[in-house]
TrEMBL record:
Record-linked SUPFAM superfamilies: lambda repressor-like DNA-binding domains (SSF47413)
Annotated source species: Actinoplanes siamensis
Classification of source organism: Bacteria, Bacillati, Actinomycetota, Actinomycetes, Micromonosporales
Ranges for domain HTH cro/C1-type: 8-62
GO molecular function: DNA binding
Transmembrane segments: none
Protein name: HTH cro/C1-type domain-containing protein
InterPro entries: Cro/C1-type_HTH (IPR001387), Lambda_DNA-bd_dom_sf (IPR010982)
Domain of life: Bacteria
Length: 149
C-alpha cells in the first residue's frame, strides 16, 4: 500500500464510508478507488480532489497535503518542503515516490537541502534508481539547488 493510498483510505474509513459510498460521492468506480487505496493504481491530483470534495470537513487536509506533495496547493508549500526534506536527510524516499512535486515545492526543498552535502548526495543517487516519479522529483530538486550542485 502506498503512503498516499493509506492516507486516502484512512480519510474514507474515518468518515464512515465504504468503497461503494466513496465511489458514489466521487464518480470513480469502487474498483478504481480500491486500487488507488491499496497502491495498485497511482493516485492522481483529480482523485485526491474528489476525495477532498467528497469528505469536506472529515478530511485531514494536512495529511493529504503531505501525501500529495503540495501539487494541489491546498496549503503552504513550506510545510510540504520541510516534511520532504526531513525524509531526504533520513535517507527515506517515501513522499518523493508518490506524485510528482510542483516547481514551488522543488524550490523549497532545494533551498533546505542545498547546504547539506549528504542530502544532495542522496538525491543524486535517487536520480539513477527507484521508480520514475522518484527519479524525476530528485532531478527537479537538484536542478534548483543554489549553486547548481
Amino acid at each position: 500500500m502506498s503512503e498516499l493510498g493509506r492516507i486516502l483510505k484512512e480519510a474514507r474509513t474515518s468518515a464512515g464510508l465504504s468503497l461503494a459510498g466513496m465511489a458514489k460521492r466521487t464518480g470513480y468506480s469502487r474498483s478504481h478507488i480500491g486500487n488507488v487505496e491499496n497502491g495498485t493504481r497511482q493516485a492522481t491530483p483529480d482523485v485526491v480532489k474528489a476525495y477532498e470534495k467528497a469528505l469536506g470537513e472529515d478530511l485531514d487536509r494536512r495529511s493529504l497535503l503531505l501525501g500529495t506533495l503540495g501539487i494541489l496547493a491546498a496549503g503552504p508549500a513550506d510545510d510540504t518542503a520541510i516534511a520532504i526534506t526531513h525524509e531526504i536527510t533520513e535517507g527515506r524516499s517515501g513522499l518523493l515516490t508518490e506524485l510528482q512535486t510542483s516547481h514551488a515545492t522543488d524550490r523549497g526543498i532545494a533551498a533546505l537541502v542545498g547546504q547539506d552535502a549528504a542530502a544532495v548526495a542522496t538525491l543524486t543517487q535517487w536520480t539513477g534508481r527507484g521508480n520514475a516519479v522518484l527519479r524525476v522529483n530528485a532531478t527537479g530538486v537538484l536542478a534548483k539547488v543554489p549553486g547548481g550542485r
